[in-house]
Amino acid sequence: MGVGTGINVVAVLVGGGIGTLAGAQLPEKMRETAMQAIGIVTLLVGIQSFLQFDNPLVPLVAVISGLVIGELLEIDGTFKRFGDALERRFSKGDSPVSRAFVTTSLLFCVGPLTILGSLEDGLSGDYGLLALKSALDFVAALSFASVLGWGVLLSAGTVLVVQGTLTLSAGLLEGVVTEPMILATTATGGVLILGLGLILLELKEMRVANLLPALLIAPLLVAAAPLWPF
Q1: Which DSSP letter does residue 39 get?
Q2: Which pLDDT score is estimated for 156?
């Protein structure tokens, strides 16, 4: 139990480390083009995730409800203040730590592989799905770090907390979390990933982290579906 999460954390650290070192050697124009390419792919990943659930009303209600909670708790501001504090402490001011930390933390922890892989690892010790996710995150961490810098490395801590918690809680969640609940969470996560894509393309500045409570609300809405009057 927990081996999959350990592999994932190492993959993010190694990929992010390589990307940070390689990115410093890239010309500014090449980094800008790479950021645009990453932004487009992020948008496509968000759309793909959103289309996995056949009822758009659930993600809509979850996002709106989650946004209200997130704004009240100022989740996005907390993330950014943490990143800014680290940037002031360890950086010369040329590394967008906050954006790198928030963006990759959300990207690495929002998706079906995070949920399914962590549950399988916790229930049976099978970390196959998390190993696959680790390979994908390695490539993503390398790509993001080459453009955004060392702040990507901080997301390894987020992966450890989120996936570790899910793995340890797997026994409690067994028999409670259904496939429709996972798909609803994935579709709602797709909305967050779309927001990240808009930020990366500098089309719209959004407080995406404030939408995080929506990931908890979506499966609850599916569980309560029999009570809906429509």
Answers
A1: H
A2: 94
